[in-house]
Design a protein that fits this description.
The complex is a heterodimer. By secondary structure, chain A is an alpha+beta fold. Chain A contains six helices and nine strands. Chain A has two domains: 77 residues, Alpha-Beta Plaits; 67 residues, Alpha-Beta Plaits (2-Layer Sandwich), CATH 3.30.70. Chain B is built from 24 helices and 20 strands. The chains are: A alpha+beta, B alpha/beta.
């Protein structure tokens, strides 16, 4: 019997060292697991990096992978959460022809209704930015694609958890 | 950069001195107590070799004949002594040749530090001569790795490397050092690493878990222990023996656990796993409590997990939290190092003997003896068996030798029939199953423990994978005893072909060279035995020879190793024929 898969958001707090991304992604690769999205940034603690990784796997697989991630020397702590336990966003930008903005009145309505915003406009093109959930971004993409999109990029998921992370306490414990 | 240097100079204390990166590397190794390193020179590591030349009275560099040999020698050194093994190589092919040994050390938790030279930092990524991304390549098979491009990083990184390799669950660390960092001068000062803030080598022992484990052990009727290398790695042999004896629990070992209590101990019930003993395999599926200590439920140990010890409660004593519930669900997990955990457990245990339960092991042993062991060690057929050779070596060394094996049939036979009186006496490639491990590992083992008899036992296949290390043995005058059990086949693969592939012997038959002539070519005394009546004297001559010695024993071509648990079968379906 195949265990049921779920979307999990993995948060990994690490030292900021060269090669850690490779070390962490290799844990997924070795188990033939596709990473849906991955984001690396600074965290709330100075000098500590945070990876936010989205995967679609079973809970049992997820727990074992968290163990393998935490085993890495430079990983401070790793967590996994379901969508219900996190507040998460993605961001995207569209580049489109400037003519459309004046010729296709509907575009302005789409931008307004989707809570997107125009970042810049020049003679040749304009750029729309939108943050939200994946579905909202996909809807906007579908609506705009009818007019022709010159370029499109979507970011990986970023998330914060409803629960406290207590990384500072963990770090203090390490140093004790 | 210049300003930084100037600032440092004004802060110079008596403990700093201005030296090159390469000299710093040697000084770091000396500070870590390294007396021997195994390696092979080349362009990108030449500055370090130049320093090794200057420091040759303080640190012994062993020139192996291939970098793979250097890693296996370092592993053998580490496995017999518990100290960190050190291997050194140049960039590119020198570095990639280390990978098999590093992967082997990773899966078998062997403390090892590998140092590789790298092209100069301004050439990184330019596809320079002998440039390879060894940090990228080694990432999945190292406990930790790091590239150094500045000499001033050398002391801290090497200190960290030794600390990480040795502490907690040990493992291999690779440090890649660019050539310019080796040349660069800086103010050297060495401090040993005492901790890394993101790394907990030993989880804190939870006494509630120890109490829960003790309660369970005291309440059951048919407990069984399976111990692994964690007992020896944690130097917990004495604590382990005390626990086993007080609670009267039949105890079996994984291949890497061998010898933590002597083979002859009445509570030692033999090896578990694919070619393990009959009783512990069968009774794994009958015990009411399975106590795993410092082992990781490898698939070669468990067979089919769906039918593995399902009737039993499971306690897992383990240092690595990632191993808990990885393959087998536990009822009680005791995280910590074996020495501490078992010492805490001992006073909570009730004294027991479980005589009826013990009798079951004895009864099944009698069946195994009749069907397998008797024919292996006292054969009546004409050809020599691997079992009788092992029996002969074992009786002449009185079970005190360190047996270093390669991988395959001879390895299983050695584990089954060698007596291990002492801990750290079974040096073999367990997890990775690296053919070619044995001969170079025996070199390292003998150099780390010159007082011990070290016998390398290989098959004719694996022996030829690293046969060039005879050159190292000759040049270094390492008095290892080398036994090749020659059946002119890749025996284990042939056995599988016979049992599972209708005897289609695809590429397993070997046409072998004159092994005695090859050994003699390296000026190593050698003999070949083909008849039973010559075996005893040949083994005696080997053991009584002071220097290195090579003994080829021609054994039955198509013998099989039994008992055997076919892949995917249950441990209780272990076959005796």
């Amino acid at each position: 019997m195949e265990a049921e898969n779920n979307i999990y958001t993995v948060s990994v707090y690490t030292e900021n060292n060269i090669g850690l991304l490779n070390r962490i992604s290799a844990i997924f690769q070795r188990r033939h697991i596709n990473i849906e999205s991955i984001n690396s940034s600074v965290s709330e603690i100075e000098g500590v990096s945070k990876f936010t990784i989205v995967v679609n796997i079973s809970e049992e697989q997820m727990k074992k992978i968290i163990g393998q991630i935490e085993k890495q020397v430079e990983v401070i702590k790793a967590y996994f959460h379901t969508d219900e336990d996190t507040i998460y966003q993605e961001s995207c930008i569209f580049k489109m022809k400037s003519d459309l903005l004046f010729e296709e009145r509907q575009i302005q309505n789409i931008i307004k209704e989707s809570n997107a915003r125009i970042v810049t406009v020049n003679r040749d093109f304009f750029v729309i930015e939108k943050s939200g959930r994946k579905e909202e971004i996909e809807l906007l993409y579908r609506e705009l694609s009818a007019f022709g999109i010159m370029q499109f990029t979507r970011s990986g998921r970023i998330a914060v958890t409803k629960d406290e992370m207590k990384i500072s306490t963990i770090l203090e414990a390490f140093q004790a | 950069m210049d300003t930084k240097t100037i600032k440092k100079e004004t802060n110079t204390t008596q403990t700093t001195e201005r030296i090159s990166g390469s000299e710093a590397i040697i000084k770091c190794l000396l500070a870590e107590g390294v007396d021997t390193l195994y390696g092979y020179p080349g362009g990108a590591i030449m500055p370090v070799y130049d320093e090794l030349y200057k420091y040759q009275d303080k640190i012994h560099h062993v020139l192996t004949r291939h970098e793979q040999g250097a890693t296996h020698s370092a592993q053998g050194y580490a496995r017999i002594s518990g100290k960190v093994g050190v291997a050194i190589a140049t960039s590119g092919p020198g570095a990639t040749n280390l990978i098999t040994g590093i992967a082997d050390a990773q899966i078998d938790s062997t403390p090892m530090v590998c140092i590789t030279g790298q092209v100069a930092s301004h050439l990184l990524g330019s596809d320079a001569f002998q440039e390879t991304d060894i940090v990228g390549i080694s990432t999945p098979v190292t406990k930790w790795n790091c590239q150094i491009t500045k000499a001033s990083d050398i002391p801290e990184v090497i200190a960290k490397a030794f600390y990480i390799a040795k502490s907690g669950r040990p493992g291999p660390v690779l440090i890649d050092i660019t050539k310019d960092a080796q040349f660069e001068e800086f103010d050297f000062n060495y401090e040993k690493c005492k901790g890394v803030r993101s790394y907990i080598p030993i989880p804190k022992l939870n006494h509630n878990q120890v109490e829960a484990a003790a309660k369970l052990i005291n309440s059951v009727k048919k407990p069984m222990i399976v111990w692994g290398q964690g007992v020896a790695l944690g130097q917990a042999e004495a604590e382990f023996k005390a626990v086993v004896e007080k609670a009267g629990i039949p105890s079996a070992w994984t291949i890497l656990g061998a010898g933590a209590i002597p083979t002859s101990h009445p509570l030692n019930i033999g090896m578990v796993g694919m070619h393990g003993n009959y009783a512990p395999n069968v009774l794994t599926n009958e015990c009411d409590l399975l106590i795993a200590i410092g082992m990781r439920f490898d698939d070669r140990v468990t067979g089919n997990l769906a039918t593995y010890a399902k009737q039993a409660k499971v306690i897992h004593f383990e240092i690595d939290p990632a191993e808990i519930d990885k393959n087998v669900k536990t009822d009680v997990a005791v995280l910590g190092d074996a020495k501490q955990s078992l010492a805490a457990l001992l006073p909570l245990l009730e004294e027991k003997t479980h005589p009826e339960w013990h009798q079951k092991f004895k009864d099944l042993y009698a069946i195994e003896y009749e069907k397998v062991i008797k024919n292996d060690i006292h054969p009546t057929k004409e050809g020599l068996t691997m079992g009788e050779v092992l029996q002969e070596i074992n009786s002449q060394t009185k079970g005190d030798a360190a047996i270093v094996t390669d991988v395959g049939q001879h390895q299983m036979i050695a584990c089954r029939y060698a007596n291990f009186n002492k801990t750290r006496s079974n040096i073999t490639s367990g997890g990775l199953g690296t053919m070619g491990f044995g001969l170079p590992a025996a070199i390292g083992a003998k150099m780390a423990a010159p007082e011990r008899e070290v016998i390398s036992i290989s098959g004719d296949g694996g022996y030829q994978m690293t046969i060039q290390e005879l050159g190292t043995i000759f040049q270094q005058k390492v008095p290892v005893k080398i036994v090749v059990l020659n059946n002119e086949f890749l025996g284990m693969v042939r056995q599988w072909q016979q049992l599972f592939f209708d005897k289609r012997y695809a590429s397993t038959e070997m046409t072998n060279p004159d092994f005695v002539a090859i050994a003699k070519g390296y000026f190593i005394e050698a003999e070949k035995v083909t008849k039973r009546e010559d075996l005893k004297d040949a083994v005696a001559k080997m053991i009584n020879t002071d220097g290195p010695y090579f003994l080829e024993v021609c054994v039955e071509k198509e013998d099989n190793v039994f008992p055997m648990i076919p892949t995917g079968a249950s441990v209780s379906d272990v076959r005796l024929e």
